[in-house]
Amino acid sequence: MKNVTDSIFLLSYRPLAGGFGLNTNVLETDIINLGVVIGILIYFGKGVLTNLLENRRRTILNTIRDAEERYREATEKLKQARTRLQQAEVKADEIRSNGLAQMEREKRDLINAADEDSKRLEDSKNSTIRFEEQRAIEQVRQQVSRLALERALVSLNSCSNSESYSRIIDYHIGLLRTMENTID
């Protein structure tokens, strides 16, 4: 680069006696001088310009490759995310349907358990009622028997005759048998 600058400096130097020189005043130059200057710039600057353009081209290509690679990675990640989303939706539907089925099973089980409890309570109630009926019947039998015996004793005490005594006993035995048949 120093050689180019030195060459331009030497060409622009003008001897006083006239000779060949480079007129650097743009308004005073002619087309030949401009052509020479442009030719020199192109000749010496060609490598620099080529290097600059090549560097710029490589930078642009690298940027494009990087962008394409990022695009491919983003596309792959998007596909993976969509796949995971679909799997999650399937799993959510499965969980939802399993939850509904479980809820229905538990509902049925609760209804069945309530029915069984109700039946047990009904059986227990009926058993208690039968037991209380039997107990009441037994109490009535005992009271009837006691009352019959009390009457028989009263009747025996009032009768001293043995014939009347046996008649009264027969009467009360028949009365007790009638009561027992009625209660059963």
Automatic annotation (TrEMBL):
Q: Which GO molecular function entries does the Swiss-Prot or TrEMBL record give?
A: proton transmembrane transporter activity
Pfam families according to UniProt: ATP-synt_B
The main place the protein resides is: membrane
Q: How does it sit in the membrane?
A: Single-pass membrane protein
Q: Where in the cell is it found?
A: Membrane
GO CC terms for this protein?
A: proton-transporting ATP synthase complex
The record ties this protein, via InterPro entries, to: ATP_synth_b/b'su_bac/chlpt (IPR002146)
Regions that span the bilayer: 31-49
Q: Which residues form a coiled coil?
A: 50-120
Keywords tagged on the record? ATP synthesis, CF(0), Chloroplast, Coiled coil, Hydrogen ion transport, Ion transport, Membrane, Plastid, Transmembrane, Transmembrane helix, Transport
Q: Which GO terms describe its biological process?
A: proton motive force-driven ATP synthesis
Function of this protein? F(1)F(0) ATP synthase produces ATP from ADP in the presence of a proton or sodium gradient. F-type ATPases consist of two structural domains, F(1) containing the extramembraneous catalytic core and F(0) containing the membrane proton channel, linked together by a central stalk and a peripheral stalk. During catalysis, ATP synthesis in the catalytic domain of F(1) is coupled via a rotary mechanism of the central stalk subunits to proton translocation.
Supply the NCBIfam families for this chain: PRK07352.1
Q: Which family does it belong to?
A: Belongs to the ATPase B chain family.
* Protein name (record): ATP synthase CF0 subunit I
